[in-house]
Design a protein that fits this description.
By secondary structure, this protein is an alpha+beta fold. It folds into 3 domains: 149 residues, Aldehyde Oxidoreductase, domain 4; 180 residues, Aldehyde oxidase/xanthine dehydrogenase, a/b hammerhead (Aldehyde Oxidoreductase, domain 3, Alpha-Beta Complex), CATH 3.90.1170.50; 229 residues, Aldehyde Oxidoreductase, domain 4 (2-Layer Sandwich), CATH 3.30.365.10. The protein is built from 19 helices and 28 strands. Strand 20 and strand 21 form a beta hairpin. Helix 9 runs parallel beside helix 10. The model has no long low-confidence stretch (mean pLDDT 95).
Length: 760
C-alpha cells in the first residue's frame, strides 16, 4: 500500500499461478510421482459380506507368484486405532478380526508391476463367518439391531446435544408452529484425480509423497497408526487434483500399506486408487433425516427452532463428531433465535463411511431451515425478504450460544439479490411451471474448535528482492498458492510473481492444521502478513539509517523504499536487502503466526464462538419445471456475498461458481445408490454429476461486504460458504413452480410427478 492508502497488489484479479503447469501437463500429481526401483501396490477388499468375522487369511499363493515382493495383512501393523478424535478413533490400516462393509481393506501386495499386483490379490484367500448387517441408521438405533462395535450400544458413533432458551415456551407463544421431516442423500466429492501415494521406509524414517489437502493431519495419523514419533514421519505434498473440502484430508489404508510394504521390501511402493475406489470408498457426504420444528409470531419474529438429525455414519467415525455437531451450528447461524434445541446422532451402519465435504453439513441444514421460513411466510402472509430481514443477524449480535457477529451484511445481501433478480416483478407473476426461490446462510471463517488451529509462515527475502514463502497451507484448487503470495507482496511493496510458494514438506514447512473450514486465507493469510511485516521491519531498520529517516515514515512500494511525502528520497528495495545481507551480515528472514482470539467453542455444550468472523450469503434461483416429465432446468441464479474485502476477485468468483455447481448436482440428481451395502453406481457413467451441458450461463455474484478488521487486508471466507444456500434456493424455487414441496433430495422428476399427483 502506498502513502495514499492505495493497494499495489490486493484487489487485483490475478490468474491462479498453477494454471499453466496444470494446463500443459507439467504438474506432477500423486499418480505421476515415481522413484527408482518403485514397486506397485494393490489392496484386497472384502467383496463378499457387508459384515463378517475374519477367520483366516491365507496369502501363500500370492507370495509365491513371480514378481510379488511382499504381502501385508492387519497383523503387520501395531494394531493402534487412529482417527480424528480420541473418543471416536476406530480405524485400523487393514481389518484384523472383522469387516464391517463391502470394500473394506483386508490385505495388500507390492509387485513389480500393476498387473502382477492385481493378479496377486486374487490369489489371497480369506475365510469369513457372516454376521447380521444393518444398513438403515434408524433401524440400527433400535434395540436388538446388529452392533458394528460391541462397545457402541445403539450403534451410536457420535452425538451432539445442545441449545439455549426455553424452546417449548417459544412454541407456546408462537402464532404459527410447524414441524416437517427432510431427507438428504449421500454424495461423493467426484474428484477426477484419484487418491495416490508413494511410500518409502528408509533408515527408520517414513516418507510419503501424496496428494493430500491436509498433509499435517496425515502426518499425525501415520505416526499414530505406526506407533512412531512424528519426527520419524515425513509427508511431501504433490499437486492436488481437487479435494472438494474433505476428500483427501485423512490418512488412508493405501498410505499406511505403502510405507509398511516399503519396509518389507526395501523399495518405494506406489498405490493409486481406481475410479471405482474413488467413488465408493469413504469420505462422502453424510445423508440425514432432519426433523425441524419452527415457531413464529404473526409479525414474523422467530420464537423457537428445534432440530433433530440422524446421520448415516457408515462403518467408521472419520470426522463425524464434527459433522454431526456442525449441522446444529449451521441451523442457527443466520437468524436471531431466542430459543433453540438441537439433538444430532451419527449412527454406524454396514456401509462405506462419510466424512467432510464442501460446506460440511451447512447445505443440509439450510435446506431444512429455509424451507420452514418459506412455509411461515406462506401461512402468515409475510413477504419472504421482509421475514428474513426481520430475523437476520446484525453486526454486534451475540447468538444465544455465543457466536460473536462482527462484520455482517446479510440485510444488504438480501436487498442486493432482490434487486438484481427482479424478484418484485417475478414473484407470483411467472408463467406456469416457472418458480423463484430465496435462501440465506452464514458460514464460519475457520472453525476454532480443533486442538490445533494456529497457522504459521516463514519467508526469506532474496538479495534480488524476491521472496521465498513457506506456509503449511495446501492449495487444492482454491488459490492459496496465488493469494498468500499476493499478501506478502503487498506488505513488501513488490509484485505477486516475485513471491514463490513452497508446497508442503513436513520436514521443512511450518506445521499447520490443514485446508478445511474456509480458514486458509484468513488464518494463513494473517500469518503470512505478520511474517512479511517482520521482514519489512528488519529491512526498514537498516533503510532508515541509510535514508536518515524514521522507520515509521518509510513507504514500501513498487520495489522501492522511500520517505513518505518525498518519493525522490529513497532507494531500491534490492539495494537495501543487499546492504543488509552483504554489508551487515543480516539475512532477512520473516516469521509470523496467527490464531483466532482465545475463545473456543465446546462440543459438549455448543457454547462459545465458532469462528473469529462469519460470512453471509443471500441467493435467488429461478427454475422452470415441465409438469409432464417432472424435469426442471435452472434458468438463473443470483448470489450476494458478504466476504469482506475480496483479495483476488477472479478467484472468489471461481469459488462461488464451483460451490453452486457442485450443489446443483446434489439438488437435482446426484446420489450414491446402494442395495444391502453394495454401491450400484460406482463409476462416472452411472454416478451422475453436473456437466457443462447442465449449467446455466446466467450465474451472477455480487460482493456486498465491508472489510473485516480481523481479516488480512479485510478478507473473510469466500469458498465453501456459497455451497450452503444452494440446495435451499433451488428447492424453494421448485416449490414455487409446482405449488407443492419436495422434502427429500435429490429433487428428481419422479418425486416432482408424485408431488403433483398428491397435490391433485
Amino acid at each position: 500500500m502506498n502513502e495514499y492508502g492505495e493497494f499495489g497488489v490486493i484487489g487485483k484479479s490475478v490468474p491462479k499461478r498453477d494454471g499453466k503447469v496444470k494446463a500443459t501437463g507439467e504438474a506432477k500429481f500423486g499418480a505421476d510421482f515415481s522413484l527408482p526401483g518403485m514397486l506397485y501396490g494393490r489392496l484386497l477388499r472384502n467383496g463378499q459380506h457387508p459384515h463378517a468375522r475374519i477367520l483366516n487369511i491365507d496369502a501363500s499363493k500370492a507370495e509365491k507368484l513371480k514378481g510379488v515382493r511382499a504381502v501385508v495383512t492387519g497383523k503387520d501393523f501395531p494394531g493402534i486405532l487412529y482417527g480424528n478424535f480420541g473418543h471416536t478413533r476406530d480405524y485400523l490400516p487393514l481389518a484384523i478380526d472383522r469387516v464391517r462393509y463391502l470394500g473394506e481393506e483386508v490385505a495388500a501386495v507390492a509387485a513389480d508391476n500393476e498387473d502382477i499386483a492385481q493378479e496377486a490379490i486374487g490369489l489371497i484367500e480369506v475365510e469369513y463367518e457372516p454376521l447380521p448387517a444393518v444398513f438403515d441408521p434408524e433401524e440400527a438405533m433400535k434395540e436388538g439391531a446388529p452392533l458394528l462395535y460391541d462397545h457402541k450400544p445403539g450403534n451410536l458413533s457420535s452425538a451432539a446435544n445442545f441449545g439455549f432458551g426455553d424452546v417449548e415456551r417459544g412454541f407456546r407463544e408462537s402464532d404459527w408452529v410447524r414441524e416437517e421431516t427432510f431427507r438428504t442423500q449421500s454424495i461423493k466429492h467426484g474428484m477426477i484425480e484419484p487418491h495416490a501415494s508413494v511410500g518409502l521406509w528408509e533408515a527408520e524414517k517414513v516418507t510419503l509423497w501424496a496428494c493430500k489437502q491436509s498433509p499435517y493431519i496425515v502426518w499425525r495419523q501415520l505416526a499414530m497408526a505406526l506407533g512412531l514419533p512424528p519426527s520419524k514421519v515425513r509427508i511431501v505434498q504433490t499437486y492436488v487434483g481437487a479435494g472438494n473440502s474433505g476428500g483427501k484430508q485423512e490418512a488412508l489404508p493405501m498410505d499406511l500399506c505403502a510405507v509398511v510394504l516399503s519396509k518389507k521390501t526395501g523399495r518405494p511402493v506406489r498405490f493409486v486408487h481406481s475410479m471405482e475406489e474413488v467413488i465408493t470408498i469413504g469420505h462422502m457426504r453424510h445423508s440425514f433425516r432432519i426433523d425441524a420444528k419452527m415457531g413464529v409470531k404473526k409479525d414474523g419474529s422467530i420464537q423457537a427452532l428445534k432440530m433433530k438429525a440422524i446421520a448415516d455414519g457408515g462403518a467408521h467415525s472419520s470426522i463425524g463428531q464434527l459433522s454431526i455437531f456442525l449441522l446444529g451450528m449451521f441451523s442457527l447461524s443466520a437468524y436471531r433465535l431466542p430459543a433453540y434445541r438441537y439433538d444430532g446422532y451419527r449412527i454406524y451402519t454396514n456401509k462405506h463411511w462419510p466424512g467432510a465435504l464442501r460446506g460440511h453439513c451447512g447445505p443440509q441444514a439450510r435446506f431444512a431451515v429455509e424451507a420452514l421460513m418459506d412455509m411461515a411466510g406462506d401461512d402468515l402472509g409475510l413477504d419472504y425478504f421482509e421475514l428474513r430481514k426481520k430475523n437476520a443477524l446484525k453486526p454486534g449480535d451475540v447468538t444465544g450460544n455465543g457466536f460473536r457477529i462482527t462484520t455482517c451484511s446479510l440485510t444488504e445481501a438480501l436487498d442486493k439479490v432482490k434487486e438484481v433478480s427482479s424478484w418484485k416483478s417475478k414473484k407470483g407473476k411467472l408463467p406456469p411451471g416457472r418458480g423463484i426461490g430465496l435462501a440465506v446462510s452464514a458460514f464460519p471463517t475457520g472453525s476454532n474448535i480443533m486442538g490445533h488451529t494456529a497457522c504459521s509462515a516463514m519467508l526469506k527475502v532474496q538479495e534480488d528482492g524476491t521472496v521465498s514463502l513457506q506456509t503449511g497451507a495446501t492449495d487444492v484448487g482454491q488459490g492459496c498458492d496465488t493469494v498468500l503470495p499476493m499478501i506478502a507482496a503487498e506488505v513488501l511493496g513488490i509484485e505477486a510473481e516475485d513471491v514463490s510458494f513452497a508446497m508442503i514438506d513436513t520436514d521443512v514447512t511450518p506445521v499447520d492444521p490443514g485446508t478445511w473450514s474456509s480458514r486458509v486465507t484468513f488464518y494463513g493469510g494473517n500469518a503470512v502478513k505478520n511474517a512479511a511485516m517482520d521482514a519489512r521491519n528488519q529491512i526498514a531498520e537498516v533503510a532508515a539509517d541509510l535514508l536518515e529517516a524514521k522507520e515509521s515514515d518509510l513507504i514500501f512500494h513498487k520495489k522501492r523504499i522511500y520517505v513518505k511525502g518525498n518519493p525522490e528520497r529513497g532507494m531500491e528495495l534490492e539495494k537495501a536487502i543487499r546492504h543488509c545481507q552483504n554489508k551487515l551480515g543480516r539475512p532477512i528472514m520473516g516469521r509470523g503466526t496467527y490464531n483466532a482470539p482465545a475463545e473456543t467453542l465446546e462440543f459438549a455444550t455448543g457454547r462459545g464462538n465458532l469462528a473469529p468472523t462469519y460470512s453471509f450469503y443471500a441467493q435467488v434461483a429461478e427454475v422452470e419445471v415441465d409438469p409432464e416429465t417432472g424435469k426442471f432446468d435452472i434458468l438463473n441464479v443470483v448470489t450476494a456475498h458478504d466476504g469482506g474485502r475480496e483479495l483476488n476477485p477472479m478467484l472468489v468468483q471461481g469459488q462461488q461458481i464451483g460451490s453452486f455447481v457442485m450443489h446443483q448436482g446434489q439438488a437435482v440428481f446426484e446420489g450414491i445408490e446402494r442395495t444391502d451395502g453394495q454401491v450400484l453406481n460406482p463409476n462416472f457413467v452411472d454416478y451422475k454429476m453436473v456437466s457443462s451441458a447442465d449449467l446455466t450461463e446466467d450465474l451472477s455474484f455480487h460482493s456486498v461486504g465491508i472489510p473485516d478488521p480481523e481479516g488480512p487486508f479485510g478478507a473473510k471466507e469466500a469458498g465453501e460458504g456459497a455451497a450452503a444456500p444452494a440446495l435451499a434456493s433451488i428447492a424453494n424455487a421448485v416449490s414455487d413452480a409446482i405449488g407443492v414441496r419436495v422434502k427429500s433430495l435429490p429433487i428428481t422428476p419422479d418425486k416432482i410427478l408424485e408431488a403433483l399427483k398428491q397435490k391433485g
